[in-house]
Write a structure and sequence with these properties.
alpha+beta, 7-stranded mixed β-sheet, 5-stranded mixed β-sheet, 15 helices, globular, binds glycyl-adenosine-5'-phosphate
């Protein structure tokens, strides 16, 4: 058994290492063009991040895999791309205008604002289910001070929706940037039913931006003000909600496997009655072991028929679902798997970041599953000043590109340096064209070297079979 001091030291060392990992991942993201600070040359804008060329490829892979698994491959799920700006009554009816808020507390002297629940958590107090009055009392009782050493005021509810004005007139109407993509799905429920006449159960899926005026955006792209969600509202008969909840629970795990997140870093958390969103009857959070702690990655909620009921009342439109056989009118219940794109991106990067030693040299590589890697294959001529090697490499590059579009051609530096650059961005395979390739007597026998990112091992593969070999490896 470790003594208390030793255990504390081990704990601190672990935290330092985790902080270091985060710093290294953030620095790699900037250096290699995955993620940049939003509005950087103007000093940034808190809670916003821009995805660079490699970041946007990784993000699109995350989204495409989701869309392919849950929309294109399923006859019962319909895609949607609704407007971000919606009639303000949508958010009044859904309860967001009244209830979508976070507990805020202000430093009495500096007026800086903090999330009260986060302060309590950091002080080792579980804020789950506490009212704002109870949080205020706990902050006083536990003598929690601001980082500047000052006292806090009372905890208040801070509204998280971004408000904006529509139109140019003085009395222009108020609207909000949507805080979840789900809103667009609920108000289009009847449109999809009328156009496609789906039978229950069926789903409507959407990928898109959502906006939240987070009090304390933090942990890189983990908690941001402009985010992206991949959401499905799966409409079911009330009596089948439990089996459909299980169905989507399994599907969340299938997605976790498909994008290569290690299962042992993902954990389910049953969210207690007092902590669920105002619309939810049951929620499971899927949490991930990020370097800064175990935090929410995804949510799976049973929203009952709360939303359709509220929109029917709020809009007075007839949005009932009519069973085509029995003529029965119902407002279906809904199961909602809600996945954040940015949190998936961060989970993939932080779990893939690896340091090891190869050929006696330290190296950094991203152990990405090929399906999410922004670049699947890099092609090089062994030497850049040998035209015959460059020409053959270009020919091989074009041949692969028609079948595998996420590919790059590199002639900078020596081959060793090129391998390290590709390792650092997670490219699973590098193909090198050397003298043996071009000097092969029979062009049908010409071979190239294919190097595996994780092991550094190299294999000779015939150009003839190269595309099918690579396709098999990256699928
Ligand atoms: N429609 C349900 C909904 O929006 P949520 O738990 O508030 O539920 C769903 O959000 C997911 O969206 C989260 O699990 C997370 O992946 C992502 N998310 C929420 N707020 C976020 C933020 N401020 N920054 C980044 N991602 C966020």
């Amino acid at each position: 058994m470790l003594g208390k001091k030793k255990a504390q030291k081990a704990d601190k060392n672990m935290k330092d290492k985790d902080n270091e990992t985060m710093e290294k991942v953030i620095s790699l993201c900037k250096r290699r063009g995955f993620v940049f600070q939003g509005s950087e040359i103007y000093g940034g804008l808190a809670g916003t991040w821009d995805y660079g060329p490699l970041g946007v490829s990784l993000k699109k892979n995350i989204e495409n895999i989701w869309w392919n698994m849950f929309v294109d491959s399923r006859p019962d799920v319909y895609g949607l791309d609704a407007a971000i700006l919606m009639n303000e009554n949508v958010w009044k009816a859904s309860g967001h205008v009244d209830s979508f808020s976070d507990p805020l507390v202000e430093d009495k002297k500096t007026k800086k604002r903090y999330r009260a629940d986060h302060l309590l958590e950091e002080a080792g107090i579980n804020p789950a289910g506490m009212s704002i009055e109870e949080m205020s009392a706990e902050i006083v009782r536990a003598e929690i001070k601001s980082p500047d050493g000052n006292e806090f005021g009372e905890v208040q509810n801070f509204k998280m929706m971004f408000e904006t004005k529509i139109g140019a007139s003085e009395d222009a109407g108020v609207t909000y940037l949507r805080p979840e993509t789900a809103g667009g799905i609920f108000v289009n429920f009847k449109n999809v039913v009328d156009s496609f006449h789906p039978k229950l159960p069926f789903g409507i899926a959407q990928i898109g931006k959502a906006f939240r005026n987070e009090i304390a955006p933090r942990d890189f792209i983990f908690r941001v003000r402009e985010l992206e969600q991949m959401e499905i509202e799966y409409f079911v008969r009330e009596e089948t909600w439990e089996e459909n909840f299980e169905h989507w629970r399994k599907n969340v795990w299938n997605y976790v496997d498909k994008i290569g997140l290690p299962r042992d870093m993902v954990h389910e958390l049953e969210v207690g009655d007092k902590d669920r969103a105002h619309y939810s009857k049951r929620t499971i959070d899927f949490e991930f072991d990020y370097p800064f702690g175990r935090k929410e990655l995804y949510g799976l909620a049973y929203r009952g028929n709360y939303d359709l009921t509220k929109h029917k009342e709020g809009s007075t439109a007839n949005i009932d679902y009519v069973d085509s056989e029995s003529g029965e009118k119902i407002l279906p219940h809904v199961i909602e798997p809600s996945l954040g794109v940015g949190r998936t991106f961060l989970a993939i990067l932080t779990s893939a970041y690896t340091e090891d030693e190869l050929d006696g040299e330290p190296r950094v590589f991203l152990k990405l599953k090929p399906s999410v890697a922004p670049i699947k294959v890099a092609v090089f001529p062994l030497l850049k000043n040998k035209p015959e090697l460059v020409a053959k490499a270009q020919e091989v590059f074009e041949m692969i590109r028609t079948e595998i579009p996420q590919i790059t051609f590199d002639t900078n530096g020596n081959v060793g340096k090129r391998y390290r650059r590709q390792d650092e961005i997670g490219t699973p395979y590098c193909v090198t064209i050397d003298f043996e390739t071009v000097e092969s007597e029979n062009p049908d026998d010409a071979e190239v070297t294919v190097r595996d990112r994780d092991t550094g091992k190299q294999e000779r593969i015939k150009i003839d079979s190269l595309v099918s070999y690579l396709k098999e490896k990256i699928k």
